[in-house]
Amino acid sequence: TEVIIVKNEDEAGEIYANCVAGLIKNKPNAVLGLATGSSPLAAYRALAAKVKAEHIDVSEVRGFALDEYLGLPLTHPESYHSTIHRTVVEPLGLNPDLVHVPGDVLDGAPLEDGEKIEHAGADYDAAIEAAGGIDVQILGIGTDGHVGFNEPGSSLASGTRVKTLAEQTRIDNARFFDNDINQVPTHCITQGIGTIMKARHLVLLAFGSGKAEAIEETVEGGVSAFCPASALQMHPHATVIIDEEAASRLR
Ligand code: F6R
């Protein structure tokens, strides 16, 4: 795993933007793996600025998001469908028809709708495969070491599937739901660690001291399902871009 320590989120964003802009110039229909949350926002901003400044044609760029809450309608402002469209599709000017979020086919279907939910994960993995796989997957990391919504204990070989959200993650994400944990969905659909590991390049971003322990486990701990992000150690092309605070526990 390559570890790059940066001054701030903007510097990390520049590194991501240069990498992805170069990719799109070589492969106009590049497949981007997208994440929500705070960590990738500066990277999306930097990429959008570069696309504009250099007049890069993104009309054929495709995207697959990591995860989605279950039980929220797609139109809910905090659904990952809405979030990805607001933070990535619109600022970059991507074709929305080419950008997919795992819950799109479910559209707020109730958890009891087992039939709809049963095939959604495998269908999503098949769609990624049919697109030729993900070229660059951007990742954030949870304070508990999750990537996507693969919480501690998740199989390192997992595909896209429905999961229960960990209590800690619901606490962490309450800030998007009026600081009221009761409004945070209890379930999600997420790319598995096995799905994520198939991407050709992984770029994990983490900032702030709250991520220091998870980063230490990810980079210097043993590979273990207790820290799902530690699977990155087995990936042939993984780049971890972090600030000094997130790096503070590294040796
Ligand atoms: C988001 C996702 C999550 C976040 C993680 C960190 O699609 O899959 O794993 O990346 O929870 O969130 P932030 O960046 O908000 O600290």
TrEMBL record:
UniProt keyword annotation of Hydrolase present: yes
E.C. code: 3.5.99.6
GO-annotated cellular components: cytoplasm
Domain Glucosamine/galactosamine-6-phosphate isomerase: residue ranges: 11-235
GO molecular function, one term: glucosamine-6-phosphate deaminase activity
Active site: 67, 144, 146, 151
Record pathway: Amino-sugar metabolism; N-acetylneuraminate degradation; D-fructose 6-phosphate from N-acetylneuraminate: step 5/5
Span of the signal peptide: none
GO BP of this protein: carbohydrate metabolic process; glucosamine catabolic process; N-acetylglucosamine catabolic process; N-acetylneuraminate catabolic process
UniProt entry keywords in alphabetical sequence: Allosteric enzyme, Carbohydrate metabolism, Hydrolase
Description of activity control: Allosterically activated by N-acetylglucosamine 6-phosphate (GlcNAc6P).
Function: Catalyzes the reversible isomerization-deamination of glucosamine 6-phosphate (GlcN6P) to form fructose 6-phosphate (Fru6P) and ammonium ion.
PANTHER family xrefs: GLUCOSAMINE-6-PHOSPHATE ISOMERASE
Family stated for the protein in its record: Belongs to the glucosamine/galactosamine-6-phosphate isomerase family. NagB subfamily.
Designated name of the protein: Glucosamine-6-phosphate deaminase
Organism: Bifidobacterium hapali
